[in-house]
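User: Before I run my own analysis I want an independent prediction to cross-check against. Here's the chain; please return only the structure tokens and, at the end, one sentence I can use as a sanity check.
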Amino acid sequence: MGSKFQLLIGGKSHEGSEGVAVDVVNPATGDSIGRVAYGSPSDIENAIETARRGFQSWQTVSPWERGRILKDAAGIIRRDTDRIARVLTLEQGKILAQARDEVHRAADFIEWGGEQARRIAGRIVPGRQPGQRIEVQPHPIGVVAALTPWNFPMALAAKKFAGALAAGCAIICKPSQETPGCVLAMGEALLEAGVHPAALAVVFGDANQVSSQLIESPVIRKVTFTGSIPIGKRLAAAAGLQMKPVTMELGGHAPVVVCGDVDPEATAELLARAKFTNAGQICLCPSRFFVEESIADRFTVRFAEVAAGLKVGDGMDPATEVGPLANDRRVEAIVRLVDDARDRGARIVAGGNRVGNRGYFYAPTVLTDVPDNAVVLSEEPFGPVAPILRFRDEEAMLQAANGLEFGLSAYVFTHDGLRQRRLVDALQYGAVSVNGSLTHLPEAPLGGWKDSGIGTEGGIEILEPYTITKHVNLA
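Assistant: Structure tokens:
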């Protein structure tokens, strides 16, 4: 029969008032592992009204106590790592070791939010008249609508739970219906630790209907979203009509600049493994590889060897290095991008094909001689496809690297200190990694430039998106 993934509202599980449920599919097999309940408009309204009441109670809990509760929740998540990671692999496809890492990172974000809750502080500004002072008071903004994706379903939701709950807000999270179990597990851990039952909800349903209802509700005072640029723009526009602030972490298409002074084989191996982590379904992952002409041949040969040698398979198999894509839509998108590049003259030097006859597997794929008009160079691939582009002229390369709407992450590989600084300064991206891979750790803020986002998540600033300032003049 499989698992039942239900709505979590007011500390209780709900089937959904209209009895609608859809299959949750294991990407490795294409088989259903359970059913997820869809919330009707009345269910979503129930979540909104419950969160309104929950906010009134949760905001009165002292920041010190909120911090204790969130840190306890992080401990519960870590306690249940093996169980949650298994759920995550079954519903999302990533290999089990990567699922465990994600569970731990989610716990880290929850703990970090708890630590920062204990640092909430206002300030006093001396007035201009004798005896006058101005108090600057931070307050929780209200009920938060959080809309989260399927590629890192637990970690990306954890960022939002951590900031909102630590600030004293209530939160309604609408995760992807394709990956419900791990987010529900996090919600249950937060409740077990002592978060007010009405202060958090996890709901599922038709994405357009749920997001519109949440954004249009006067109870919702903040919208936070992680996902694609087109959807983010639509949601931000809808929130703007309601004068509601947004935090948006949107798509990326990260340029990687590999300079001629690095070891081409070692760098290729590092980057190939980084690229194909989570089957390439990472918005921060290296995506367009600009390799200096002097080492391009050696780099490409090794990159293709590593890609071809990676074991593709079920994420539950300990030998697997690359799991399936999360759904059939991603397979279709990758097929389209690879076919387009090949038709325009690109060479496939590794992969370029589906793997097996069940599940959503696609071989790690490496493209060379990719023409400028190939769609893969302008559309975020979000999958196991790596175009390698040679360059001689640094200025022309940077023009291409910066030439898209994306501005989330970029990579630089060189041991030349002056060149490192020049390239880091020139790349128009919110995060730049030098000589290594990139992961968002909770202790540092991260956000996109240009069309890749609004605002940041993490760091000592983690609560800022969920607070609002009151200016109090005391004469």
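Sanity check: The domain at 254-434 is CATH 3.40.309.10 (Aldehyde Dehydrogenase; Chain A, domain 2).
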